[in-house]
Design brief:
Blueprint: E1 31-32, E2 38-41, E3 46-51, E4 54-55, E5 63-64, H1 67-71, H2 74-77
Antiparallel strand pairs: 1-2, 2-3, 3-4, 3-5
């Protein structure tokens, strides 16, 4: 059986950092995606990638997120 490559701990996003980050467009808080690869701005409907543990909070790097996908975020499912 082939083992997956080891993940460098320096390339893991520290969730505590999330408390200090805001969306560069709306200045609202960000939500970590379920797969921990993006930071989601619910207000702006944008997803910012996390590359090697570093969030890329540039509007040029962001992708649009459909409203349905935002409603599926674990954080919002409990509010319904």
């Amino acid at each position: 059986m082939v083992e997956p490559p080891a993940i460098n701990p320096r390339h893991v996003f520290d969730v505590k950092t999330l408390e200090m980050l805001v969306c560069p467009l709306t200045k609202t808080r960000l939500t970590l995606s379920a797969d921990r690869t993006e930071l989601i701005s619910i207000a702006a409907r944008l997803a910012f990638p996390i590359v090697n543990g570093v969030p890329l909070l540039s509007l040029d790097e962001a992708r649009s997120v459909e409203p349905e996908a935002i409603r599926q975020l674990p954080e919002l499912k409990g509010d319904a």
